[in-house]
Design goal:
By secondary structure, this protein is an alpha+beta fold. 54% of the residues lie in helices and 9% in strands. The protein has two domains: 2-75, Glutaredoxin, CATH 3.40.30.10; 85-185, Up-down Bundle (Glutathione S-transferase Yfyf (Class Pi), Chain A, domain 2). It has helices at 11-23, 34-37, 40-45, 64-75, 85-104, 106-115, 121-140, 152-162, 175-185; strands at residues 2-6, 27-31, 53-56, 59-62. β1, α1 (11-23) and β2 (27-31) form a beta-alpha-beta unit.
Length: 200
């Protein structure tokens, strides 16, 4: 049985939840707040003291992008992580965007607005303003980020963009991104989270 350590409001945790749900894999989730992450017991599992953390038997892996890559390779090889070198390269690009532009832009703005965490707001706003037109234009011409189907690129990039209202960003101002996050949430088995629900 897979154990997932995470938080209900964590977009990074939700990336993994979506993957596990779409794969139909059973898992147990252990809610892990900031205090729990600083405990000796949790640091023994992952010295970085971050979420999400996935444990499957003797295998332990942290970082949402890394976990998605592992799940894809294990359960949806080719379909989710690329069928050609070109697809794999493009998927890696969007995983990089998730860890860089999205994390340092919309996700950082959400941390500040929703949780009161101090961030370099001007930098986060500039990163967001530079990145959102790029992904919105990309999605104007396609339903999915890479390969005409759902891949881990979509799973990695979507949560913090679906939750942009929490960052004070009007998702309706980015119609292609909005349609894409609704498309993901409409897929069978999608696990809802606060701020991102299946369309009614």
């Amino acid at each position: 049985m897979i154990t997932l350590y995470g938080s209900p409001l964590s977009g990074n945790t939700h990336k993994v939840r979506i993957a596990l749900a779409f794969l139909g894999l059973p898992w147990v989730e252990r809610l892990t707040d900031a205090a729990a992450r600083q405990s000796d017991a949790y640091r023994a599992l992952t010295p970085m003291a971050q979420i999400p953390l996935l444990i499957d038997g003797d295998f332990t892996l942290r970082d949402s992008q890394a976990i998605l890559a592992w799940l894809a390779a294990r359960h949806r090889a080719g379909a989710w992580d690329g069928q050609t070198p070109e697809e794999r390269g493009k998927i890696a690009l969007w995983l990089s965007h998730a860890a860089n532009e999205i994390a340092n832009g919309p996700a950082a703005l959400r941390l500040a607005r929703r949780f009161g965490i101090s961030i370099p707001q001007d930098h986060a706003a500039a990163v967001t303003a530079r990145f959102l037109p790029i992904i919105d234009a990309h999605l104007e011409r396609r339903d999915w980020l890479v390969g005409g189907r759902l891949t881990i690129a979509d799973l990695a990039a979507s949560p913090y963009l679906a939750l942009m209202a929490d960052a004070g960003i009007d998702l309706a101002s980015w119609p292609a991104v909005h349609a894409w996050t609704r498309r993901i949430a409409a897929l069978p088995g999608f696990p809802a989270m606060p701020g991102w629900q299946p369309p009614s």
